[in-house]
Write a structure and sequence with these properties.
The protein has about 375 residues and is an alpha/beta fold. The protein is built from 15 helices and ten strands.
């Protein structure tokens, strides 16, 4: 099972800096992270994405629509938060080389941050169909060794753990898969810390729509908001926390199926494939935590059609919003949720846009 980092509240409060005194990048919330002290250039360009109101979407949907676009991160997606922290945390414990299965952005981020720390090249396993893809080329660009196996991330991961069984057991490689180590969750939670800072003095959004594959960010955002409360660092205006909404493609929706069945854990499904690569995750190692977060926040899980994702992707482009298919799924889900009455008139809703449109366009 995954490790979860817990903190000493008194030490966090003593080290906590007001917003105006923090630096930039991933480590601006250093007091709430498990590793610090890296060179400034390592992750100064990670995070810091604003929550911006979309007037056009707000008018269309009858709610305030806010967009937090992670495409400005150095490798082009929110994966830089989790992998930037995960690589740093692992290296602090002596790791020399990392490996992971990926369907894209996670592998690119692992390669980038391994290069920035001067570690041995990341070893990235991708599905067979990704050979020669933009993800393959991007990983290689940052020095990674790329191997191919299986039909999806589950198949690639199974092959990786079988072929590297000895190396993983002996510590020669460290597995950076989603929730296999604590650093990625801690890095992703910085999205929640940033949201709390962005909404200083005013209520948090009523709901956050999150494109859910592995689900690290979904759990991380909730962890951050609860930690701020437990550390007595919450803003006075944040008495009500957002409802969290897990968004998946109807072609691969294990979290939605588990939530609707009232289950306490997620059972893997057979994926039919989806244009949103990051949502093509048939199982969820921390599914129990995702389900708990959805219920604790009084949120829900929602599946969307492939056609609605395609339509939302095009609509975002016409509005000048650079975001990929996974991000477009959140807009599709909000549209469906409004029609079904799951989001009330006049609500404030934040769409978490996880990466840029460039990879989606390159794959067309």
């Amino acid at each position: 099972m995954p490790l979860v980092v817990e903190y000493d509240a008194e030490r966090v409060r003593a080290a906590w800096q007001p917003a105006e005194r923090r630096g930039a990048g991933l480590f601006r919330f250093a007091a709430a992270l498990p590793v610090t002290g890296l060179a400034e250039e390592y992750a100064r360009d990670v995070g810091g994405t604003p929550a911006l109101r979309s007037h056009a979407l707000s008018e269309e949907l009858g709610v305030e629509v806010l967009l937090k676009n992670e495409a400005t991160n150095p490798s082009g997606s929110f994966k830089d938060r989790g992998l930037g922290l995960g690589v740093a945390f692992g290296a602090a414990f002596g790791a020399k080389r990392f490996c992971l299965p990926t369907q894209g952005n996670a592998g690119v981020a692992a390669a980038l941050f391994s290069a920035r720390l001067g570690l041995l090249p990341a070893l990235v396993y991708m599905p067979e169909s990704y050979r020669g893809s933009i993800y393959h080329k991007a990983c290689a660009h940052f020095g990674a060794e790329v191997r191919f196996a299986g039909a999806n991330i589950a198949g690639a991961g199974k092959e990786m753990r079988a072929s590297l069984e000895r190396e993983l057991a002996g510590g020669e490689y460290v597995d950076l898969s989603t929730f296999f180590e604590p650093g990625r969750l801690e890095g992703k939670k910085t999205m929640g810390l940033e949201l709390a800072e962005s909404f200083s003095g005013r209520p948090l959004p009523d709901a956050i729509f999150y494109p859910t594959g592995g689900g690290t960010g979904l759990v991380g955002i909730w962890k951050a908001l609860l930690e701020l409360q437990s550390w007595e660092l919450s803003d006075h205006a944040h008495v009500r926390l957002p409802r969290l909404v897990a968004v998946q493609s109807e072609n691969c929706a294990p979290v939605v199926a588990a939530f609707e069945a009232g289950a306490s854990s997620v059972t893997p499904v057979a994926s039919s494939g989806t244009i949103a690569d990051g949502l093509d995750v048939p199982g969820a190692i921390m599914g129990h935590s995702m389900l708990a977060v959805l219920r604790e926040s009084k949120g829900f899980a929602q599946r969307v059609s492939e056609a609605s994702i395609e339509r939302a992707f095009g609509d975002l482009g016409r509005l000048g919003v650079g975001a990929g298919y996974e991000s477009a799924a959140t807009l599709a889900a909000l549209r469906d949720a409004r029609k079904a009455g799951r989001i009330a008139d006049g609500s404030s809703v934040l769409l978490l846009l996880t990466g840029s449109q460039l990879i989606a366009l390159a794959r067309r």
